[in-house]
Structures are given as C-alpha cells and as structure tokens.
C-alpha cells in the first residue's frame, strides 16, 4: 500500500535484492537494494506515467486508448485517464507526449 507522499514498506530479506514496482499506467522501475545490514529506508523510485495498455511502454497503442475515450468523463477504461481527474482530455495527451517512447525496466 502507498502511504502519504508515496511512502511504502515491504518485508525484505536481509540481503541484496532488486525491488521492482509497476502500478496502473506507470512504467516498471527496478532499483537495487542492499538490506544485508538490516532495515533500509529512503529508497527512491521515480515512476513514468503513460502506459495505458500495460505493455511497459509509452507508444501509439497507449495513444489509441486515450483517443478512443477522448473527451469522455469517467471513461469505461480508467487507464485512458492518465492523470486520474475523471476525464480523458488534453492533460492525458500531454502525459503521453512528455513520456513518448519511454520504456520501463525489465
């Protein structure tokens, strides 16, 4: 669960591991975490928005989803509403434009 400001906690082994996060329309990000000395805090992940199709890329397929629901309030596919304001509009298109051709981590 995400807390205020995006804070989260996960149980972790006392060793080095990779932490991957992929939520909704956000691209997957993976960071290396070294918990060999115990609990770790302050792990930062910058997520990129725009993946309406869930393929971990921002491309023409995502644009097609936004275009399908253009100017619709509360679209049937909530992944078309990239900024979560309840409308599929220019603000969602701006997110696609900003992150065009971005690819998430494997």
Description:
- The protein is α+β, with helices and mostly antiparallel strands and 106 residues long.
- Helix content is 17%, strand content 11%.
- The chain has a two-stranded antiparallel ribbon.
- A hairpin with a 7-residue loop joins strand 1 (16-21) and strand 2 (29-34).
- It is elongated.
- The mean pLDDT is 93.
List keywords for this structure.
106 residues; alpha+beta; two-stranded antiparallel sheet; 17% helix
Order of strands side by side in the largest beta sheet? 1-2
- How much strand? 5-15%
Low-confidence stretches: none
**Average pLDDT metric:** 93
CA-based gyration radius: 16 Å
Taking the alpha carbons of the first and last residues, their distance comes to: 22 Å
Helix/strand/pairing category: alpha+beta
- Outline, from the CA principal axes? elongated
The total count of strands amounts to 2
Number of helices: 2
Listing every helix as H and every strand as E from the N terminus to the C terminus, the arrangement reads EEHH
How would you summarize what this structure contains?
The protein is of the alpha+beta class and 106 residues long.
List the helices and strands and how they pair.
Elements: E1 16-21, E2 29-34, H1 60-68, H2 90-98
Antiparallel strand pairs: 1-2
């Amino acid at each position: 669960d995400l807390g205020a400001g995006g804070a989260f906690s996960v149980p972790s082994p006392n060793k080095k591991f990779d932490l991957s996060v992929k939520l909704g329309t956000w691209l997957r990000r993976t960071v290396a975490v070294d918990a060999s000395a115990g609990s770790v805090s302050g792990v930062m992940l910058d997520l990129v928005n725009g993946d309406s199709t869930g393929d971990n890329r921002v491309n023409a397929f995502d644009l097609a989803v936004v275009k399908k629901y253009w100017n619709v309030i509360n679209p049937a596919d909530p992944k078309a509403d990239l900024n979560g304001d309840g409308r599929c509009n220019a603000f969602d298109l701006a997110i696609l434009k900003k992150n065009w051709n971005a690819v998430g981590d494997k």
